[in-house]
Predict the 3D structure of the following.
Amino acid sequence: MPATATTITEQVEGLNAASAERLPADILAAFSASLARLNAAGVPAGVAKTGTRVPDVALIDAHGAPTSLHAVTAGRPTVLAFYRGAWCPYCNIALRTYSDQLLAKLTERGVGLVAISPQKPDGSLSMQEKHELTFPVLSDAGNALASQLGILSLPAGEDVRAAQGELGLDVTTVNADGSDTLPIPTVLFLDADNEIGWIDVRPDYTARIEVADIIAGVDSAL
């Protein structure tokens, strides 16, 4: 079934079922243990609150050109979607669904959409081209903006690094600053003054906010 006909939750269930059949038991166990740690930790205490004005932060566009948060929002209400990287299948599901189902609804409301990750610009470009995304996909080098918002994830354990390595992934070679630090998947609404109207933070990276809930949050904040 195409992404436009399903919720994110339904697509994730399909991905998890396929992964359970395809991936070795040790890799599945490592990822399961990691999710348990993330869920136990919950939302960090220092997450930015509604009403917080987000300062300007340097970002990099998908072609490697420098830009900044305020340059991209340009005085327009904007939804920011923080994701881990183009290598994350759950991020791919979320951004593809937001492109197919969310973008037009936001455009009708005069609201922009921007995706942000700590990966190198070529990863942003890959994500943009792979899913034919027509909204900005930006690099937050060193998680500077994610740090300002207090949405950094727990460090990956050795079990997760080993499992990722078995799958051919080394996050330190993907992230712009050479670290393996990742943002917690987060979607937030900024008003025209770059103040947070609402924020949704998901420590469990497999669980993403649905399009209908984003629209409800936007409409409550406009």
